[in-house]
């Protein structure tokens, strides 16, 4: 089985995803390439991608510089390296991320019913706490800074479909646009995106949605979607919350009428109504119902609907990977532009990791690669992968003794070590 694993397998997949010609062409378009060419732009891009996975201080610009020097065996002045972190470089990374998101597909089959959908999407957002006070990213609490990363995760392809970075105060609901792009797609979201008008727009655009039902929602039941034997309680023409306490059935599957307000037009806002499906699955531990509102067809049973909503955890795993493994919150910069650049670099790291996972899943379809275990393995090998890429691009192997000397020596002669400060104090007293 392992004879399929060529030593160049990883390098070939990564360089096919981001060929040198592609990086250089976009760099020229974005005016990133400098005339003196002291820094290899292709290796700088790969350093930002792989360096984000490396342990230690690689989330700082100084850490990226060390990773670059180790891979290329090239000494670069700190000022020269810092000067490359510009909006143009951020634009280059964004273009590469857009390219990768169209190319990367991780094999993932959930169930035959999913052929009904073009994609299964999960919308969510997470707060990134910034360690320095930045006016561009005000937080919900005074005296703090916080950014919010808004993501639409594609659970079918296991990649990110859309992303947006805002300040912490921006509500996630404002960043999700409905429209024709949702046709034949299923959208899962939590209560932060809850809106009856949004549900209606998704349905009118030919899409599907699934959300928890808010605890204060009490829609009118207009029909039951399955028949019950015996003397079952009749539900139509009654309010949902008014009958929940009288029910002992394991599941609820009803059609409800929901009223909502349309968007204001010409100063007027009209009220409308639509019929949706509400599904309830009894929780044995709490002896109450988990209620969901959706427009999914009846071929999805109530228990399948409840299990399907659990797929929303996929995006939480992505956030945990970005934060705990790639240190997304460990920003030590006072420049908002660099914050945005590093967020895009982290998303590129995640996407490259998924691209490699897709290769291994295709080669070994019977082998299970747990997501978090894969991410930790990828992180532990990131510097080796970066070194291999550098050598394939013509850079010599690193001079380890030179790297050790350059990084470990005292950077300023005027800065005395503790023993030297003590010795200096005794010398002064003796001369006095």
Automatic annotation (TrEMBL):
Xref: InterPro entries: RNaseH-like_sf, Transpos_IS4, Transposase_11
BP-aspect Gene Ontology terms: DNA transposition
Record-stated family: Belongs to the transposase 11 family.
GO molecular function: DNA binding; transposase activity
Gene3D superfamilies in alphabetical order: Transposase Inhibitor Protein From Tn5, Chain A, domain 1
Domain named Transposase IS4-like: residues: 117-350
Protein name according to UniProt: IS4-like element ISH8A family transposase
UniProt keyword terms in alphabetical order: DNA recombination, DNA-binding, Transposition
Keyword DNA-binding: yes
